[in-house]
Amino acid sequence: MGQLGRSFFSCFLACWMGISSAQEVAYFESNPSNLTSSLGKDVKFSCSIHAIGEPPEISWLRDGAVLEFADSNQVQVPLDEEAWMTTSELSIPSVQLSDMGSYQCAALVNGSDVLSEEAHLKLEGLPFFTEQPQDVEVTANTPFNLSCIARGPPEPVRVIWLQDGAPLNDLVDPLAQTPSVLAVRGLNHSASFSCEAHNAKGVSTSRTAAVTVVPGRPSALSLMDRSDHSLDVAWEPGPSGAYPLDVCTVQAVRSDEDLSTVSDRELYNQNLRIPPFRHSLRGLAPFTTYHVRVGCRSKEGNSPWTHWVAMKTGEGVPTAAPENIMAVQNGSCTVIQWKEPQGHLNGILRGYKLVCQSGDLPEVVVDVGLTNETILKLNSSVQNLTVRVAAYTGAGDGPWSKAIMISNLNNDEFLPQIQPVDSTSPLSWHWWYVVIAIAAALAVAAFLTIFLARMRRKETRYGEAFEPSMEQGELVVHYRVRKSYSRRTTEATLNSLGISEELKEKLRDVMIDRHKVALGKTLGEGEFGSVMEGQLSQDGVVLKVAVKTMKIAICTRSEMEDFLSEAVCMKDFDHPNVMKLIGVCLQNTESEGYPSPVVILPFMKHGDLHSFLLYSRLGESPVYLPTQTLVKFMTDIASGMDYLSSKNFIHRDLAARNCMLNESMTACVADFGLSKKIYNGDYYRQGRISKMPVKWIAIESLADRVYTIKSDVWSFGVTMWEIATRGQTPYPGVENSEIYDYLRQGNRLKQPIDCLDGLYELMLSCWALNPRDRPSFEVLHGELEKILKSLPPAKDPEEILYVNMDEGADSEEAELGAVGGLGPEEPPVKESAPLKPMVTAAEVHQPQAVGRYVMCPTPHESSRLLPGNHSCAATEEGA
């Protein structure tokens, strides 16, 4: 063996002995285990190593590479004087596809790495969509494509397309492969499309895309005839499929206007019943170029506009007469001079005409052409000659100037003799005094306006002022608008935002002039927005409203569309137990970027239900809400959710905090920021992971982010529990991260102390593990109405909400007392006998005088009291 061979052998032997010694002093007692999970779940790996000497540090490897920023915890425990046990735990929150692979532990011992056995992480679950079909508008019989892409694991994932709920293919069809593109040759009527993704774990359904067949773009827009003030146009309509055209709209704007900034006042806009497909645009300016376009609509929507077509009106006559008419006489010759008219020529100036008349002689009309002067030669017989001048275009003569009189002089006199027929001078001396007085008045008014505006800004920094009314003894809010609004920019702002045409079209029906909104005090604030009290002026009526604004800046178009979608979602709701949208504004901000959206909602006097319940239990003067009132709240919410479910809406965030109480103590379902409409099928799969109210979400939604109307039923059961406990937090003592395992073990919310058995049975039915076993909102509403009718009649909630009960009375006795029943030792009370001291419905809040009671505003409202010593107890007038 050569020298080189012996060196290589020595090196190899040393390395082998080092590794052997490292394995002797350290070995893994436990290795990571193989795991199979689903997307979005949290997983953990662990390993333990026994070592002699110094305790080693454990690092984690994935596919042989060190995880630099791994979320791991290590615990080192001494076993004896030399031996150590080191345990490491690797946590992977919300696993993604990139987390799949092999994992093992590595410990550095005596300069060598000791590796554990490999463990493999696999992900399995329902397919998730990376691309879903989108809403489109197409014209009749026009080809279009829809895309639907889904992924596992497990693979393969196959896609089935559905049109109006009917499948278009099966799983063996080549079309079922992903990525999947559905090529539609054309439709004659509107339809809905969705896709189902199948793998070994189950089925996921995409969003439903609405394909709307709208009329095609009109064509052959052309000018048929014109005059100085009108344009006659004609066009051919586009195809509209199965839906006949209802109306065509003709728009026109002057060519010298910027099309992107044209206001409604400057735009010619006329809706026409068709046929015929022809229209005469009247009231236009002469000799002016207009851009004209046409669009038509059917009951399904609007066609695209035609391109702007330039058209020009005919020539008109000048609008003004020539000015500064002068006559200079030199012997028998008189020079007549003038300047061009200052008004619109309404055409091409072709020349000027003079009319001369002397005494009773006939007028003589002279065409002098384009010159601005002419010479008249007068003989001695002409006396007191009058001259008038007019400009003319191809359309005719314009107005004539005032006549000037020319006297015939002797040849030795050269002074001009010019005498207008109307000798009254418009610039006589007294007019100057009027002009100076008006200018001075305007200057004083401008100074006072600036001074008062600055003073007002200091006094109304927060946009409201409170004054007591001497007549009624109530707090009166006097609003002062804090910001200036302008409707002119609304359309331009919507166009500049880049939001979808569908959303923009829906928003047109609910946009409100921002200058009609006056902001008052803040009613409530959340993490992302605030609600302010306000006044809306419409058609001479002032309406008290709630104004919802965003606290954080909107940075992307997607964020803007998400916020505005809540408003559109509420637009068509019409139910006494569902919050109805009044309108939407867009408020420009001082910083650059997207404007801040403002949503106008009905003012809810008693605020949100959760705060109302909490204040009744934990306020300064705790009060007892009777069972009748609580069941009425549940019945109202069930009625509203029954309406929403009939409209194929899933709320996804139903809770007491998202239900509002109006002036009549009626509960209304509100806050549709997470709502989704479902068209076919009965479930919706959330496309991305986001913050969700864990303790209100159904167990299947926690597992796979699948939402149905039956998952709303689960949330309604939790909301019933909130109401029954008067605002307690669900699952007390259970952390959010433990909720899923807690429910999987069969645990549910416990029956509240004073809750009726029938109510709790309804709650339990809402929490059935299988969604199909849960009742519908229609059934829940009916059952709650039966329970409400079975209870003794309650007093008018505006007059009697509850009766104060002793703390020692049990719940059943308290309920009897709440509706005027008898206590255990009280004698019967005659109907004419006065009732025990009672508390008004408003006593859940701070006091405010209303009628014979001292009313209390909501927790969000001002706590300022009226002068005098008032309390929340009901008092008789004059007591």
For this entry, give a set of tags.
879 residues, Immunoglobulin-like, 7 domains, six-stranded mixed β-sheet, elongated, disordered N terminus, disordered C terminus
Summarize the structure.
The protein is α+β, with helices and mostly antiparallel strands and 879 residues long. The chain has 13 helices and 53 strands.
Summarize the helices and strands and which ones pair or pack.
Blueprint: H1 3-25, E1 26-30, E2 35-37, E3 43-52, E4 58-62, E5 65-66, E6 71-78, E7 83-92, E8 101-109, E9 112-115, E10 119-123, E11 128-131, E12 136-139, E13 144-151, E14 158-163, E15 166-167, E16 180-184, E17 191-199, E18 202-205, E19 209-214, E20 219-226, E21 230-236, E22 247-254, E23 268-273, E24 278-282, E25 289-298, E26 301-302, E27 309-312, E28 323-330, E29 333-339, E30 351-358, E31 364-369, E32 373-377, E33 385-393, E34 396-397, E35 404-406, E36 418-420, H2 429-459, E37 464-468, E38 475-479, H3 488-497, H4 501-508, E39 517-525, E40 529-538, E41 541-550, H5 557-571, E42 583-587, E43 596-602, H6 609-618, H7 627-646, E44 649-650, E45 659-661, E46 667-669, E47 676-677, E48 683-685, H8 699-704, E49 706-708, H9 709-724, H10 739-744, H11 757-766, H12 777-790, E50 802-803, H13 811-818, E51 838-839, E52 848-850, E53 853-855
Helix pairs in contact: 7-9, 7-12, 9-11
